[in-house]
Specification:
Strand order of the largest sheet: 1-3-2
Shape: rod-shaped
Strand content: 5-15%
Number of helices: 4
Radius of gyration: 28 Å
CATH architecture: Orthogonal Bundle
């Protein structure tokens, strides 16, 4: 990045300032305590406006940010689940329709336990079929990716 004179330099990004809900809540409580102390000790109404501006409004803003943060996390968890399913389908396609939790974990950032849970969920939904091999190993079979000669259910 360059400064206004065209010289390279470090620039700070101030766009993300004030996005911390706990900072808004803490500053609101701090000012509420300070101005509340003065208002009660002096028994004066002149501190009502500063209390509203410097204390109550930031606390309301912090509460809004906390609620919004929870909504965003819920949306991210939903999209993360969908992307994990896509990773599993990609591994299944590359392995001719046969997948194990260890294969999914090997080819992605998903843990083995999480991959096992996702595969069980996909089997419950009917996207895959859980099979037990003669050796006792559990595999998940995605019929859409099986070779044609094995996939003759019709």
């Amino acid at each position: 990045m360059q400064d206004m004179f065209g010289q390279p330099g470090n620039r700070r990004n101030y766009n993300n300032r004030g996005n911390n809900p706990f900072g808004s809540l803490l500053s609101g409580l701090l000012f509420l305590g300070i101005f509340g102390f003065f208002a009660f000790s002096m028994r004066s109404w002149m501190f009502v406006l500063p209390v509203l501006i410097l204390a109550v409004f930031p606390m309301i803003d912090g509460i809004k940010k906390l609620v919004n943060r929870k909504k965003i996390r819920a949306e991210l968890n939903q999209t993360e689940g969908a992307s994990n399913e896509k990773v599993i389908l990609t591994v299944a396609k590359g392995n001719h329709g046969i997948v194990t939790p260890t294969l999914v974990a090997l080819h992605s950032d998903i843990s083995i336990d999480q991959a096992d849970k996702l595969l069980q969920d996909m089997a419950k939904k009917g996207y895959a079929e859980m099979k037990v091999r003669d050796s006792g190993k559990i595999v998940y079979e995605f019929s859409d990716f099986l070779p044609e000669k094995t996939n003759e259910d019709f």
